[in-house]
Amino acid sequence: MDLQLPPKVTPRAFARLAEINAAGGGGAKALRVAVEGGGCSGFQYDIRLDDPAPDDLVLEAGGQKVLVDPVSLPFLQNAVIDFSEELIGARFVIENPNASSSCGCGTSFSL
């Protein structure tokens, strides 16, 4: 049986989430990372601020939480959730070893 590991969240991603929550002023929100059908490659990531649901996997560091729902979890096994800042913009990114290909924008992928 192949041992599957949950996704990992980098310290940089947790730090950026802490900055977002500090600037928000309305109480800390968790970062939800989900996989949905669609996008130019078949699946797409949905990354947003949200509240935890009872069946979510919660990844936590320094009081910050990243959530993955049970339906998305198999698609995100062994993935790395990071934050990237480049000249063209800043965003949360996912390095997903389960994806066989992805589009140029990095928000959709295929298995």
The major beta sheet can be summarized as: 6 strands, mixed
Structural class per helix/strand content?
Answer: mainly beta
Overall geometry: globular
Helical coverage, percent range: 10-25%
Oligomer: single chain
Structure explained in plain terms:
With 111 residues, the protein is mainly β. The chain has a single domain, classed as HesB-like domain (Hypothetical Protein Aq_1857, Chain: A, Sandwich), CATH 2.60.300. It is 13% helix and 42% strand. The strands form two sheets. The chain has a six-stranded mixed sheet, covered by helices on one side. The radius of gyration is 14 Å and the shape is globular. It starts with 7 loop residues before the first strand and ends with a strand. The model has no long low-confidence stretch (mean pLDDT 86).
